[in-house]
Amino acid sequence: MSGDKHQDPAVVGWFDFPPSKPARLIPPIVLAYIGDAIYEVAVRQFLISRANLRPHHLHRSATSFVSAKAQSRILAFLDPELTEEERDVVRQGRNAKSGSIPKNADVLEYRHATAFETLVGYLYYAGEQDRLRELIGKSIEFIEGSVK
User: Fold this and answer.
1) How far is the C-alpha of 69 from the C-alpha of 42, rounded, in Å?
2) DSSP code of 4?
3) Alpha carbon of 100 to those of 29, 90, 111, 141, 146: distances in Å?
4) CA triplet 92, 69, 34: central angle to 5 degrees?
5) CA 18 remoteness from chain centre
6) 3-state class (DSSP) for residue 89
7) What pLDDT, in 10s, does the model give residues 91-124?
8) How far is CA 44 from CA 7, 20, 108, 142, in A?
9) For the stretch 116-133, what's the b/e string if a residue is b when 16 or more beta carbons lie within 10 angstroms of its beta carbon?
10) 20 to 30 Å CA-CA from 90: which of 27, 79, 110, 148?
11) Is 74:146 a contact under the CB 8 Å cutoff?
12) Catalytic site positions
């Protein structure tokens, strides 16, 4: 991976606002902050590609993909195929102190969800778009298969 190289802003991210630091130097909680948004957009785009476009249905469906419980399960599912570098990012995200108390998840699920979001944020800012699409695609397939 190329996480330690400060890349051209056209390669890193969707907009012309590159991060202030290389991905490896961004705090895990900050990576989780952007990772949460990136994953949410991916899930919304997936749901809009489906037939049922009623807003209430979209919101209810999205919750089954983006909840802390779902993200914790996704991380366990993806773990066997993560690289050592990705596992290191996950470990840092899991151990990061968020300063907030989870409302609808236990602490362990919340930490694993934060770790998943940290990984997504890291891949996004490291310019690893293909890997990001691969892991998010597998995540969505996994949750979609378990919801039915």
Assistant:
1) 18
2) T
3) 11, 19, 11, 29, 29
4) 50
5) 18
6) helix
7) 999 999 877 777 777 889 999 999 999 999 999 9
8) 28, 28, 26, 16
9) bbbbbbbbbbbbbeeebe
10) 148
11) no
12) 36
